[in-house]
Amino acid sequence: MNKRNSIGTVGLPVRQGNPELASLVIPVFNEDGNLLNLYSEIHGVLEKSDFPWEIVYVDDGSTDSTWQLILDLHRKDSRVRGVRLSRNFGHQCALIAGLRHARGDVVISMDGDSQHPPKVVSALVEEWRAGSKIVNTIRLDPPDVALFKKITSRFYYRLFSWLGGVNLREGMADFRLLDRQVLNDILDFKEDPLFLRGVVQWVGYPSTTITFQGRKRLSGTTKYTLRRMLKLAWHGVSSFSLIPLRIGVLVGVLASILAFCSVVYAIYSKVVSGSAIPGWASTVAILSFLFGILFIYLGLLGEYLGRVVVEVRRRPRYLVSELVGVEDTERQP
């Protein structure tokens, strides 16, 4: 991965000129307390930029006044466009919906809770001008972040990088810039669910990374509960790796070897000493342990088969119920 420096990205051709249009894609779910402040901040930053821009808000089935605020912003500023989903399909699906409706030749995705600072957008575009087709960000958490979150986040990113075969660094989420060519390729992926964080690293285009200081949420509470984070983590691992199933095969082979050795030892003890083998309790405990492992891996196998069933159904990832400032030129994926 290319490193960022003060004059651009090393070894890549520097682009001349500006993007014809930069699209900001922002999925939101019950963010009426953050929406206006975020728009004002984005407007204040990008009005000083030297490139045209638009904002594509994706309302992921909000039950508050989020969609009404998007309509009001569109009436005030035609560069604000909106996509409303029929229900809550989840952050990743909402993000894909926004990416499909973005028109820019550079597309920047960010969260709608004000934790991603808009001032970083100009730095992302500068790295694109320096030749990078993917510009990732790494969030530097404030000192008061919970220890549990730090430990679990570090563990997951390392585990995914090992299992999935792609380098997903700690703090690397969905705040990034994608060149239009990269985005078009990613939108051709038909797998469901689509784990964007992994796919972006997998496609292999020239990329670089910048860091930013994370901010606290301005209003409301996080929509990423522990259950949703675990679900996203499992989708990421199962999308990119068959290693969990291969570990099951390895455990089965080792258990078979252990069982064979136990049978040989039992026969030997009976023939040589003529005595029965003591320790039935320990034998039952070992068998219970092995059957537990067996059922765990049957569950894993069921999860992978479930993903096949989802793929075969070919259901759309999301349904759009309403658009504002957006032409409905694409069919659902």
What would you note in describing this structure?
With 333 residues, the chain is α/β, with parallel strands linked by helices. The chain folds into 2 domains: 4-221 and 319-324, Spore Coat Polysaccharide Biosynthesis Protein SpsA, Chain A (Alpha-Beta Complex), CATH 3.90.550; 243-313. The protein is 47% helix and 15% strand. It contains 10 helices and 10 strands. It has helices at 35-46, 66-76, 91-101, 120-129, 147-164, 180-187, 196-202, 226-240, 243-272, 280-313; strands spanning 4-5, 8-9, 22-28, 53-59, 80-85, 106-109, 134-140, 176-179, 207-213, 320-324. The chain has an 8-stranded mixed sheet, with helices on both faces. Helix 1 (35-46) links the parallel strand 3 (22-28) and strand 4. The protein is elongated. It starts with a strand and ends in a 9-residue tail after the last strand.
The ordered H/E elements are EEEHEHEHEHEHEHHEHHHE
Number of strands: 10
Name given to the CATH architecture of the largest domain: Alpha-Beta Complex
Q: What are the low-pLDDT stretches, counting only 5+ consecutive residues below 50?
A: 1-10
CATH level 1 class label of the largest domain: Alpha Beta
**pLDDT averaged over residues:** 77
Strand order in the sheet with the most strands = 9-7-8-6-3-4-5-10
The dominant shape is: elongated
Largest sheet: 8 strands, mixed
- Our measurement of the CA-to-CA distance between the termini, rounded to an integer number of angstroms, reads 31 Å
Named CATH topology of the largest domain: Spore Coat Polysaccharide Biosynthesis Protein SpsA, Chain A
Could you estimate the helical fraction of the residues in percent?
40-55%
Radius of gyration: 25 Å
Instruction: Give the name of the CATH superfamily of the largest domain.
Output: Spore Coat Polysaccharide Biosynthesis Protein SpsA, Chain A
Percentage of residues in strands: 15-25%
Which structural class do the helices and strands define? Answer: alpha/beta
Task: Please report the number of helical segments.
Answer: 10
Number of domains: 2
